[in-house]
Specification:
This is FAD-binding PCMH-type domain-containing protein. By secondary structure, this protein is α+β, with helices and mostly antiparallel strands. The chain has 18 helices and 17 strands. The protein has three domains: 3-113, 2-Layer Sandwich (Uridine Diphospho-n-acetylenolpyruvylglucosamine Reductase, domain 2); 120-232 and 467-491, Uridine Diphospho-n-acetylenolpyruvylglucosamine Reductase, domain 3, CATH 3.30.465.10; 241-289 and 329-465, Vanillyl-alcohol Oxidase, Chain A, domain 3, CATH 3.40.462. The structure holds flavin-adenine dinucleotide.
Length: 507
């Protein structure tokens, strides 16, 4: 039997199977291997081992029946048509940077790895860069830096384009341009039917809105992002580490920066990390500060003057290109990871300060449980100043349900890196408890903002309902319009689904 006959046989089986019981992943893999010769990798092959490398060890622990590695959009369409017709559970891997198990990898099913959809094309007028979803942000910056161009993207080299841009995308340039999702001119998308559509403010505008924060797994596989590019030279950046004991000085400065400093100069960007590093004597604070355009003589931007004046342990200041800035915070692969977050109002320094003892209790709980094995607990304040919220409203706004009048906000992010699998449950429950305490304290002062940032969310967080009723209802309507049978809700496993079981208690 020739390959064409085999392919016809597979499609005959597929059509006959329409609506049949779910076909096991390993059987579907055989059908996929026939339909997409050379693009399916099975366990015990070298490529399978490479594809099963994820940033978080908890994701690599899954062993899919096979990986499908499309080389072009039509391969993705073929894979989706087959998987939906065969009723086979699957997931999609972009850059594989989600922390929790099963977000973009699957046990007993198929993982579509977008790795080889990695083209980068700059338009003749330099206004648009079309990128495949298999790219990491470093591939894009390394192409654009020599051209004096940039896009609104991630702040770490290896994050995938897909997950970051479909969930939002906080960037060095967010103060001027909003999130990465607000700077996509057009998406090429494979829908649940296998149809390939373009999505822009004028073509499929509802889906365009939904893809800006609604994530891929409810709507479609994005096979090309046409990103708005802009002229960009070197950035100014300063990375400062302070002793944790200075938190009572630094937190009020950070809060003032969020409310006043960042909106006064939309070129600047920052975040504020509290952590515990025994080598630095215990609690430590990291403040990363950026300005998109360096000032004359590389002067310190006025917004950061107060933070820069506080005595620090280590300070590294440079003027360099985007790739260098990305490499400045490269985070190693291979550890166990969890990320959680919740939004609060930025209006009270006392609130941000009063979270610290809660964080410290969490740290001591984790250190005791880790019993000498490696563990690093982070407590991060990611500001969403009013100028970022304003910039997010372009082209009809995004799905996040955030408006300038809601701001300024701080996303309070709780994340942990550890090694010992035996304490997984304890780490998760400690993070949940801390998030609950943060929310409760904020609520008691009328400062809770009911917003969960999907890109930093924990597995059981109710992300889409946190966008508010209007946004959640519209997301559901768009999903129904593009996938009337709810195939992706049923078969595309992992990450955050709109059809979350109603009985699950809110975290
Ligand atoms: C070290 C580190 C640094 C980070 N820095 C930032 C930052 O600076 N700013 C920020 O906003 N976030 C940041 N994040 C969070 C990051 O944006 C999310 O983890 C994001 O989901 C990662 O995208 P990914 O493609 O690598 O992940 P994946 O785990 O591969 O994908 C996440 C989800 O997106 C889906 N998906 C991916 N690609 C596509 C596609 N093409 N079409 C449809 N669905 C797709 C996947 O199926 C999955 O559901 C960081 C994360 C890490 C681990």
């Amino acid at each position: 039997m020739g390959i064409n006959q085999l392919q016809q046989a597979v499609w005959a089986l597929t059509l006959a199977c329409g609506g049949c019981m779910a076909l096991e992943g390993d059987t579907a893999c055989v059908a996929l291997a026939v339909a997409l010769p050379g693009l399916v990798t099975f366990p015990n092959s070298t490529l399978y081992a490479v594809e099963n490398i994820y940033w978080s060890a908890r994701q690599s622990a899954a062993t899919p029946d096979c990986f499908v590695t499309p080389r072009q959009t039509s391969d993705v369409a073929t894979a989706i048509k087959l998987l939906t017709a065969l009723n086979t559970p699957f997931t999609v891997k972009g850059g594989g940077h989600t922390a929790f198990a099963g977000a973009s990898n699957i046990e007993d099913g198929v993982t579509i790895d977008l790795l080889f959809l990695n083209s980068i094309v700059v338009s003749d007028d330099r206004m648009t860069v079309s990128v495949g979803p298999g790219n990491r942000w470093i591939n894009i910056s390394e192409t654009l830096d020599p051209l004096g161009l940039a896009v609104v993207g991630g702040r770490e080299p290896n994050i995938g384009v897909g997950g970051l841009a479909l969930g939002g995308g906080l960037s060095y340039f967010s103060g001027i341009r909003g999130m990465a999702c607000d700077n996509v001119r057009n998406y090429e998308v494979v829908l649940a039917s296998g149809e390939v559509v373009n999505v822009s403010p004028t073509t499929n505008p509802d889906l365009y809105w939904a893809l800006r924060g609604g994530s891929g797994s409810n709507f479609g596989v994005v096979t090309r992002f046409d990103l708005a590019s802009f002229e960009q030279g070197d950035l100014w950046s300063s990375s400062v580490i302070y002793p944790g004991i200075l938190n009572t000085t630094l937190i009020p400065l950070f809060q003032d920066l969020t409310v006043n400093g960042l909106p006064s100069d939309s070129q600047v960007h920052t975040y504020f990390v509290q952590t515990y590093i025994p080598a630095l004597g215990g609690f430590a604070i990291l403040s990363d500060q950026y300005r998109a355009t360096p000032l004359p003589d590389e002067a310190i931007p006025r917004a950061f003057a107060a933070l820069q004046a506080v005595p620090s342990i280590i300070k590294t200041t440079k003027v360099a290109n985007v790739s260098t800035a990305l490499r400045g915070i490269e985070v190693a692969y291979g550890s166990r990871q969890t990320w959680w977050n919740t939004g609060v109002s930025a209006s009270s320094a006392a609130l941000l300060q009063d979270f610290v003892p809660l964080y410290e209790e969490h740290v001591f709980r984790l250190l005791a449980a880790a019993n000498g094995t490696s563990i690093t607990p982070f407590f991060v304040y990611q500001p969403l100043p009013v100028n970022v919220l304003t910039a997010m409203q372009v082209n009809g706004g995004n799905a996040l349900g955030l408006y300038p009048e809601d701001g300024p906000l701080v996303i309070v992010q709780v994340s942990v890196t550890w090694e010992n699998a035996a304490i997984d449950d304890l780490v998760e429950s400690s993070c949940k408890q801390l998030i609950k305490q943060v929310k409760a304290l904020a609520k008691s002062r009328g400062l809770d903002r009911e917003y969960i940032y999907i890109n930093y969310a924990g597995k059981t967080q109710d992300v889409f309902r946190s966008y508010g009723n209007a946004s959640y209802t519209r997301l559901k309507e768009v999903a129904k319009a593009v996938d009337p049978q709810g195939l992706f809700q049923k078969l595309w496993k992992g990450y955050f689904k709109l059809d979350r079981p109603k009985c699950r208690p809110r975290d």
